[in-house]
Amino acid sequence: MRWVRDYHPQADQNKLYRQALVITLVGNLFLAIIKGIVAYISQSAAIFSDAANSISDVVYSLLMVLGLWVAMQPPDLSHPQGHSRFEPLVGLLVTFSMAFAGFTAANNSIQRYLEGGEIVKWGLPTVVLLISAALKAGMFVAISRIARKLTSPTLRTTAKDNLSDVLTSLAAFIGVVGSNLIHPLADPIAGLVVAIWIFRQVFVAGKENLGFLTGKGASKEEVEEFIRAVENVPGVLRVHHIMTDYVGPRLMIDLHINVDGTKTLNEVHEISDQVIKTLEEFPGVDRAYVHIEPHDWVD
Questions:
Q1: What is the pLDDT of residue 106?
Q2: What is the mean pLDDT of residues 177-184?
Q3: pLDDT at position 275
């Protein structure tokens, strides 16, 4: 008897995860260092907010390394369905890191605003912010592509964070320019805009990952698509029960179908295999379990 389902390590997927981790960790560490130095030199609230965000990115990068390593482990007796639920847990920890960055940015910006703000000198701050925006845009594109291939909520959250970083760096750039051309308060106001954007991303990413951890199922539209696909399989009369559940970032489907009760066991088994194959061809589906009943049976 097998106590855990068959597991076939996918070297290509593990390679993609490693690529994403290297891109994220190296990119965030580089940006945290240069932004921290420039924030200290320039005393800009907007750049300080951006630097705080990059430091939190380094923290979540380290969490990703640990969490995704655990998520890629094969099923065992303690986790017969695999360890993939650790992945949205890591994604949730990333949102906590983002929330801390948002709080730090908001607190600093409010203090600078109450102090009246100050003009941020041109030069190095503006160059660093533009470099940061360009680098983060490249990271967003790269991580988004990998996340789509892996159907990974953690990497989707990371990609969203990279996109928000592009916008926050541009907002900080506007703050620096505004402090020179409009009013010194433009800098802390831009820093506060950065913080608000971070909090928005925290809400979106947190909602998605929390859903994966609390028994979220497929959407109504997805369920209807599954049913249509199954009912197009030769020999299937109808689907009379379907249940979906996310095991980590991928779906498990349990469904009951009706077939002609006079068919042989071999024929019924072939129909079941074809239904499973059809469902597991959907990119977000990990596995499917099929229960077969006679055409007039409803449970």
A1: 82
A2: 77
A3: 92
* pLDDT confidence bin for 191, thresholds 50/70/90: confident
Q: Which of 187, 213, 239 corresponds to the end of one domain? A: 213
Please work out, in degrees rounded to the nearest 5, the angle formed at the alpha carbon of residue 136 by the alpha carbons of 213 and 184.
110
Give the pLDDT score at 141.
Answer: 92
Whether 205 contacts 98, CB under 8 Å: yes
Name the residue type at position 182: I
pLDDT band at 72 (very low <50, low <70, confident <90, very high): low
- What backbone torsions phi and psi does residue 238 show, to the nearest 5 degrees? -170, 160
Confirm if 219 and 208 have CB atoms less than 8 A apart.
Answer: no
Return the axis-axis angle of helices 153-181 and 11-42, rounded to nearest 10°. Answer: 20
The model scores a pTM over 0.85? no
User: Which ranges of the chain does DSSP label H, i.e. alpha helix?
Assistant: 11-42, 45-71, 86-114, 124-150, 153-181, 186-213, 220-231, 265-280
Is the same domain home to 245 and 202? no
- Residue 76 is classified by DSSP as -
Distance from C-alpha of 191 to C-alpha of 106, rounded to nearest angstrom: 7
From 178, 193, 213, the end of a domain falls on 213
Strands across the sheet containing 250-259: 238-247, 250-259, 285-294
Full domain range(s) for residue 257: 220-294
Q: What is the CATH number of the domain that holds 27?
A: 1.20.1510.10
Tokens read off for 30:
């580089």
Average pLDDT estimate for 206-214: 75
